[in-house]
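Late entry, written up from scratch paper. The run itself happened at the end of the previous shift, but nothing got recorded in the book at the time, so transcribing now.
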Amino acid sequence: MIDPIASIDVATVRLTLPAPLRLGPVTVASREYAAVRVTTESGLVGSAYCLTRDAPVDACVTRLVAPALLGTDSAPPEAAWHRASRATVLVGRVGLVLRALGLVDIALWDIAAQRVGHPLWRLLSGSPNPVPAMIVAAYPLPERSPESLADDVLRLAGAGYRLLKVARDPDPDRMRRLLGRVASRLPTAASIVVDAGFGWEEPAAALTEISNWGDPPLAWLEDPLVPEDVEGYAELRRRAACRIGVGDELSSQASFRALAAADALDVLRLDVVAIGGVTPARAVMTLAAEHRLDVSFHVYAETSIHLAMAAGGTVETFERDIPGGNPLDPADRLLVGGPLFSAGTAIAPARPGLGYELDWELFTYSKAL
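Output as recorded:
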């Protein structure tokens, strides 16, 4: 049965953070999100959202992706993805256009699962078992001491999380204090991920700095260099005493293939929106399996939980139910539903599709098509 795409709505919202964040070379004072809502002629509705990183994701959906898909069949999602990919081939093989395509692709997978009455993970032949969850526990804030941030990490470890992420503090003394306090009190089964946020330009600088951290229980070092620096990552992995995770924001499947072929990573960090949606994310997960790489998903737990339950991996989340939203990433203010987190694990809701709803009243529409 053909069920054409009748409309694609595009919207954005900006949420101001309580205090600016320093992420590697970038300062973040607010978070802007884009969202799409795809409606088919039969009345099925699929949704998706993402961080824009202050780029015009909504314009890319409106001007490039939507014209290629409106009026065409909504199923199967893979066919729609390839139509839009071919239509945007001049500018859309990597980068911002892929993020826009990723939003629409995720919404179409939401619709596909609703159509058969299953949660997406079941449509993808997944297991109903919970998967590991990593929580983003602490990022450097000027008004917070390293010791108070460490106590946040330890509190979440006490709640059952066994993978806890902290961001690199560019102040070496503050970073040593944070990691030292955490290391001395962390439960034996728990470990730390340090998000370097592309903070170093070459491996030698990274090696020098991390050698001064002492001996914290590192699960992996995340994104120390830009992800396209394959030679740099290969050298860093050979010389570092810790595992290396790479991939946040990466939109190139070719870059993942090059990193894997060079033995340049241990953990493949997969951003489902940035890579172009569920359709290409499944191919990247197959690549990870072929090279025996762990997969750790970057944000968007509402989508990645389904892929993790289908093919393995760790989902990433921020602490939820904080009044006013999480001060690091308040996406929880935008939606209702999504994964259920308990004692460091996550499981998708049983309802058909992705299993969450966006609060569309918070968004401002760029254009309704």
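Residues 5-118+359-368 form a domain with the Enolase-like; domain 1 fold (CATH 3.30.390.10).
(Scratch paper discarded after transcription.)
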